[in-house]
Amino acid sequence: MGTATAPAAPAKAARKPATMAQALNRALHDSLAADPTVHVLGEDVGTLGGVFRITDGLAAAFGPERVTDTPLAEAGILGTAVGMAMYGLRPVVEMQFDAFGYPALEQLISHVAKMRNRTRGTMPMPITVRIPYGGGIGGVEHHSDSSEAYYLHTPGLQVVTPATVADAYGLLRASIASDDPVIFLEPKRLYWGKADWSPDEPETVPPLGRAVVRRPGRSATLITYGPSVPVCLEAAEAATAEGWDLEVVDLRSLMPFDDETVCASVRRTGRAVVVHESSGFAGTGAEIAARVMERCFHHLEAPVLRVTGFDIPYPPPMLERYHLPGVDRVLDAVARLQWED
Amino acid sequence: MARSSLASGSGKPATRSGKRPGTTAAARPETTGPGHTPPPGWRPMTDPAPLLPDPEPFRVLGTPAAADADPVLMRELYEALVRGRRFNRQATALTQQGRLAVYPSTTGQEACEVAAARCLGERDWLFPSYRDTLAVVARGVDPVEVLTLLRGDWHNGYDPAATRVAPLSTPLATQLPHAVGLAHAARLRGDDTVALALVGDGGTSEGDFHEALNFAAVWKAPVVFLVQNNGFAISVPLHKQTAAPSLAHKAVGYGMPGRLVDGNDALAVHQVLTEAVERARGGGGPTLVEALTYRIDAHTNADDATRYRDAADLEPWRAHDPLVLLENALRDRDLVDDAELRAVEAGAEEMAAELRRRMNADPVLDPMSLFDHVYASRTTQLREQAARLRAELDAEEA
Ligand SMILES: Cc1ncc(C[n+]2csc(CCOP(=O)(O)OP(=O)(O)O)c2C)c(N)n1
Ligand SMILES: [Mg+2]
After folding, report:
1. Strands A182-187 and A128-133
2. Is residue A146, in this structure, part of any structural domain at all?
3. Whole-angstrom distance, CA of residue A311 vs CA of residue A323
4. Is the residue at A108 inside a domain?
5. CATH of the domain at A274
6. How remote is the CA of residue B169 from the centroid of ligand 1, in Å?
7. Are residue A131 and residue A85 in the same domain, yes or no?
8. Contact assignment for B379 to A73 by CB distance below 8 Å
9. So what EC number does this one have (chain A) (predicted)?
10. What integer pLDDT is reported at residue B348 of this predicted model?
């Protein structure tokens, strides 16, 4: 995990190795304990504790009315969550896997995202939709999609994705506390990554919408998020051998988008590569590259490049390594940033 | 639940074998050898017989029960029907004058619309579909605010929490799970709030209809679903929509009672809905009500119904008009005279004139408000975009 270079929090309580899964579980637990209007609902989230065990122990601690095994119907889960929010509750919905969130898209796009605007602010939708996403876990078809661009193209939604254990906790707490809906994308291949973390005094994180510089550098900026953050940190380490000192920006929140942190970095380095594993065409990287170009044109020494998954349906598990952007592909892109000028 | 004619059931056997469920397994013939037993632990989750709709749509008008109906209720319903019909006519006229972008009329369906509003208590919630302007107005919401969506100055004009009316829902059946979730939340909070959700016959084909009914039944949510079966989904008749015995029968598959009612009999719809609401309030769970009615006008002012139905199809329904049925019942019992009927008409005219007057005023538009409610506070991006629009507006004004 790429927490090594993040500013260290004052270590009041004992820090010990914890996984992102444990931090997410703790965030749900603490949210349920702190606010009686928080309700967790989804498929298998109760007795089983979720297929990834993110809700482990919550039903036992808070009872089946707070942590509810619903019928197996994603549109129904999100649609009833809308009604619960209308009555003043704060639902936290789990979609079992990225691709199984699609049945809920109509409720999401037509109601969750639009209700506040439709009702001139009188009917907010404080709903968090947790979605395990992305590949790299050897999942068979429909278990490895990176669906962030669908959500990002929907005004009214916030889209958040953690890359570290500490952020997983802090961003999920902040998402649940937000009065606007949040698509909370959990990079499932980072679920079991460990970092030293204090569950008793978890670090607080800034409000949603703030990116963070994970690794400071002077030569070029890698702009990335979620599962690609560790890839970029690794690439940055490897790049030192070539004499490149790469900065890594972890966006954390894709909407709201932190133009300020991104542009400040690119203005310093003059070069940028956007890295994500979802398809490139009309993807998140296209938006980011355009924003950087519009705002930092006179600081750029080279075009903003993108390293993304191919424009193909997510591959079968035995072929996924050819699709996922890895360290070499990131370094290749860095090499193409017109250094010779 | 005080079912009006349930005790007699459908008169048909509840299962193919003619035996009541729950007794069938025990009554199976002797079996031989291992494996020749029923699947382990099988028993029906619920007895379907009490859930079945009546064989005939429930009616009050034209039956002996009409003689005992509450005269005050009859008069009030009648006045509401007359005003409702006048409202539909006025709103359609407003489309011709360019004051409304579109209007889906409920002429012919006034009994359902009015009863849906009147069966609810103060703290109950109504979840209307896009056609149900009249139900929202009958609930007491300011008509100009209700028409905001169709006028086009915003997507919704009233405060849902203050009025306990959800926004008119254009994506068909999507409002149904909302009603279930809200009713469920109310119950979790210990309130005795009930939600009534409206949907059309076409909307029952949507996945959200299925999911909402299933969630409602599993959670025993205090919610009532009213399907106004008005014969058409735009141009598509019911037989292209479903092969179910009736839409009310669909309830049985979810484990909730289905009720069939004459949707043009205001007293019958009012009674069936009131019973279902009280059943829900009392913890009895959800009910699906199918009201048989007819869309007398075209789908909207922009539709040409002659492309898919004959004028002659309307005749039997004109004879079964909700206003005429109730007026006849009032006259039969000498509960009204001509002067009173004229007074009701005059009241409706006054309402229409007032609506006309208010709708003929241009709404005040604020383009900058486009950015106000996307999020609780504007994002950096929206602040930038708002500044751009502000500059354009300033340049226009200069
Ligand atoms: C999800 C969705 N699909 C299609 C439409 C377009 N549409 C609007 S009304 C309508 C017919 C609805 O028929 P029904 O449910 O019977 O209601 P009615 O119009 O008769 O009140 C259609 C297809 C829509 N509004 N929403
Ligand atoms: Mg219809």
Report:
1. parallel
2. yes
3. 9
4. yes
5. 3.40.50.920
6. 10
7. yes
8. no
9. 1.2.4.4
10. 98
